[in-house]
Design goal:
Blueprint (H helix, E strand, L loop, with lengths): L2 H18 L2 E4 L3 H15 L10 H9 L3 E7 L2 E11 L2 E9 L8 H14 L5 E6 L4 H10 L3 E6 L18 E7 L3 H7 L15 E7 L5 E3 L6 E5 L4 H7 L1 H20 L2 E6 L4 E9 L3
Parallel strand pairs: 4-5, 8-10
Antiparallel strand pairs: 1-2, 2-3, 3-4, 5-7, 6-7, 8-9, 10-12, 11-12
Length: 285
């Protein structure tokens, strides 16, 4: 990493925030931390007795040099992101924007700001977790940002009591975002890491698919490339068909989790909902 890379990342982050119509800045004082916690409460709607995080702890993170930023639009905080220093570099623990700015590429602007922040501190790797059943998040993380899954974590957080995660086991994919790698650099320039299931080749097999009624069916895993489908809207399934959502959770854990445990590499995620796994590549730690 060199100064030119950090400068380019900063310019890309500034442009992305401008296009999204937001200001992203580090937070420092306790009132700002309280407002950030209110933003998190609006997004996740946790049990009042079990907050996601406290203002006091956020202030400790900020004071000790971690990544604590707010997203503002029209003088109002509408998003927040916390990342703390970790063995890999920076671990991005929680990020979210409220409904008023959905669909404006604000999340993308936050990640570009985070990339620039890290590179300006000679940090070249960011990690985070996400629910592998949520299709839009899989596409955002693997395609739009160019991050790469490194580990499947079954029921990582245990039972959670916020309205987003309540009633489901908290399986997560850990991803690594190599900030100076070709996919991250292309992402900053607006070019996503796009893969297509049709390009998988003759030796591709379907490891997980949906039956006509919508339930998961486990297939083959012996090809050079294995395609693993997830539902288009798992969050809606949780609300309308919780037993079916649980079936998908266990099937994905078995297939995607099993392939990753064997050391195979997730090389991308398609726009129409398939993980692409290369059985000839070894995954990176």
């Amino acid at each position: 990493m060199n100064a030119a890379q950090a400068d380019a990342a900063t310019a890309a982050a500034d442009l992305t925030a401008e296009r999204a119509g937001v200001t992203i800045r580090e937070l420092h004082d306790l009132d700002e931390m309280r407002e950030a916690c209110r933003v998190l409460d609006r997004i996740w709607r946790p049990d009042p007795g079990n907050p996601l995080i406290t203002p006091e702890l956020l202030r400790v993170f900020a004071h000790s040099g971690s990544y604590v930023v707010g997203v503002e639009r029209g003088g109002r905080m509408v998003g927040f992101c916390l990342g703390f220093l970790a063995s890999a570099g920076l671990h991005s623990h929680i990020a979210g924007v409220d409904d008023s700015v959905r669909g404006r590429n604000v999340g993308f602007a936050v990640k570009q700001h985070q990339r620039a922040w890290a590179l300006n501190r000679s940090i070249t790797t960011v990690t985070w977790t996400f629910d592998p059943l949520i299709s839009r998040n899989a596409y955002f993380n693997l395609a739009k940002l160019g991050a790469a899954p490194s580990e499947y974590l079954a029921d990582f957080y245990g039972a959670m009591r916020d309205e987003v995660n309540a009633g489901t086991e908290t399986d997560r994919l850990m991803v690594r975002w190599e900030l100076t790698g070709e996919h991250a650099v292309a992402s900053a320039a607006g070019t996503p890491h796009v893969v297509f299931a049709d390009d998988a080749g003759a030796r591709a097999v379907v490891g997980l698919d949906a039956k006509p009624g919508g339930s998961p069916v486990v297939g083959r895993q012996d090809g050079d490339t294995v395609l693993v489908r997830i539902p288009a809207d798992a969050e809606e399934l949780r609300r309308t068909a919780p037993l079916l959502a649980r079936e998908w959770r266990y099937a994905l854990r078995e297939v995607l989790g099993g392939l990753m445990a064997e050391g195979h590499t997730v090389t991308g995620f398609t726009r129409d909902g398939w993980y692409v796994i290369d059985r000839h590549q070894e995954s990176q730690p």
